[in-house]
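> forwarded from #structure-qc
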């Protein structure tokens, strides 16, 4: 906590959170602090939080002791979250990352001295019973034990486009944006000329639309980001054009062999031996690489696209067939050597392994603390701020601790949390002011 306060001015950041309640007894800033520590200390539900709201160590932690005996009820926490100003909670993560950037944490970049952001869709939970105005809806088949459909029921869920800063040391969340249901989408123009009119959208939004909104805001907020890394959903001309217009390069996975420009590249490579072979002795892998620059066969994109294909053979398992990866590369990322393009594309799995998996298994982000569009997003922002702070702390301050715990990042962080919880229980008197 001393690190958070000293380096990132955490107390002031949390104090900047506001909500829409009038003259509340417990300020939004105190509620935000309580939820932040709920995330950091992995308190599993609001029920489990309730007794802590009157325990001295927790009150000291959020900055409410010694003035108060009890912070508030969990109902109040929920009400405050529902009315929280999202920009004011998002500002905590933004300030933390800007400070880290000023402190040169990302200054060296990663491959090619560039800074990479991976984007992906994330679905934290779904429900057959409860819904809110921001819920997306899909129909699911309920089957009996013989596999016969007995009925079709609606399933409600939330989906977010997530941007994660990736490098070899850590993955930090930089922004999230909800995929909107049809009722909340902006009106669309239908028809042309004098008969044109504004109508409601007929379908829920797609991930690509939300991700486009997300990436514009990411670039506007963090001008130093260089390259976007994405899966095959993003391998299309309009998205690459958007990235171009924002000055962002791209490394995007391409799957469909019938889609341009991969089709053209595969045709050119058909009878060619690999252009380059790289052996990675530490990873026990051999990479065969094909590279093709300046493809112009994608009609929805004006610039030139580079295609790279890599096949990876695991030297310790010669019987296993090699895995193949194809990537589309544009903008600044075209300066990378083909094996680096492959490494960046493979690092995209960080977002699913370190990010999403850890968030649902360890951070309780799949638990619905309060099902309300604003409450969900406010809580995510506070939990993710805790995740980012802990990640930065672990990699910048506790390197030897991480080494001693082995290579499993998720387990290392969990061990750290256990130790923090043990200490919190043991603290009788805390000397909070580290200044
Ligand atoms: Zn909902």
């Amino acid at each position: 906590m001393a690190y958070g306060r000293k380096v990132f001015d955490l107390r002031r950041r949390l104090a900047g959170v506001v909500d829409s309640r009038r003259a509340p007894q417990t300020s939004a800033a105190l509620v935000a602090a309580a939820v932040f520590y709920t995330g950091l200390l992995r308190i599993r539900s609001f029920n489990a939080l309730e007794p802590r709201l009157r325990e001295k160590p927790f009150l000291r932690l959020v900055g409410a002791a010694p003035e108060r005996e009890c912070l508030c009820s969990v109902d109040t926490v929920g009400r405050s979250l529902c009315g929280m100003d999202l920009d004011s909670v998002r500002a905590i993560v933004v300030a933390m990352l800007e400070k880290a950037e000023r402190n040169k944490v990302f200054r060296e970049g990663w491959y090619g001295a560039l800074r990479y952001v991976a984007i992906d869709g994330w679905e934290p939970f779904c429900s057959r019973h409860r819904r809110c105005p921001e819920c997306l809806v899909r129909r699911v088949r309920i089957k009996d034990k013989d596999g016969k459909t007995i009925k079709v029921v609606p399933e409600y869920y939330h989906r977010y486009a997530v941007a994660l800063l990736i490098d070899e040391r850590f993955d930090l969340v930089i922004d999230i944006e909800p995929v909107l249901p049809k009722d909340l989408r902006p009106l669309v123009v239908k028809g042309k000329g004098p008969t044109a009119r504004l109508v409601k959208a007929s379908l829920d939004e797609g991930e690509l639309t939300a991700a486009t909104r997300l990436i514009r805001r990411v670039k506007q907020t963090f001008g130093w980001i260089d390259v976007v890394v994405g899966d095959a959903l993003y391998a299309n001309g309009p998205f690459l054009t958007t990235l171009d217009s924002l000055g962002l390069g791209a490394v995007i996975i391409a799957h469909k062999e019938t889609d341009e420009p991969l089709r053209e590249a595969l045709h050119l490579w058909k009878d060619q031996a690999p252009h380059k072979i790289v052996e990675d002795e530490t990873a026990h892998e051999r990479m065969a690489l094909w590279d093709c620059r300046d493809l112009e066969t994608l009609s929805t994109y004006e610039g030139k696209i580079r295609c790279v294909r890599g096949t990876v053979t695991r030297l310790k398992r010669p019987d296993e067939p090699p895995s193949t990866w194809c990537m589309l590369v544009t903008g600044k990322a075209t300066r990378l050597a083909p094996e680096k393009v492959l490494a960046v594309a493979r690092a995209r799995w960080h977002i699913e392994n370190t990010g999403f998996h850890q968030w649902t298994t360890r951070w309780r982000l799949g638990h619905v603390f309060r099902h309300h569009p604003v409450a969900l997003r406010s809580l995510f922002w506070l939990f993710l701020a805790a995740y980012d702070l802990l990640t930065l702390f672990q990699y910048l301050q506790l390197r030897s601790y991480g080494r001693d715990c082995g290579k499993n990042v998720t387990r290392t962080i969990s061990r750290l949390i256990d130790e923090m919880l043990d200490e919190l229980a043991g603290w009788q008197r805390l000397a909070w002011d580290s200044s």
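QC bot note: The chain has 15 helices and 14 strands. Confidence is low (pLDDT under 50) at residues 428-435.
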